[in-house]
Amino acid sequence: MFPAFNDGLLWFKSSRSAGNGACVEVAFVSSSAVAMRDSKDPRGPVLRFSAGSWQRFVADVRTGEIDQPRS
C-alpha cells in the first residue's frame, strides 16, 4: 500500500492497483475506526467501519472466504 493525502487523513491504496483509478483507498481514522473511499472520487462519500469489522473483512479476504465463484 502507498499513501495519498486528503482531508487530514493518510489514505492508502494497494501497490497492486492499476493506474486506471478503479480502486478503493483506506485510511485509519483512529485505533477504533477505518475509512474507505472510491479513488475516482476522493471528495465523495466515505464508508466508516469499526476496527473489529475491518479486521474480520481483511481476514476473510485473505482466506478467500468472500471470493466470487468462478464461472
From TrEMBL:
Residues 11-62 form the DUF397 domain. It comes from the Bacteria. This is DUF397 domain-containing protein. It comes from Phytohabitans suffuscus.
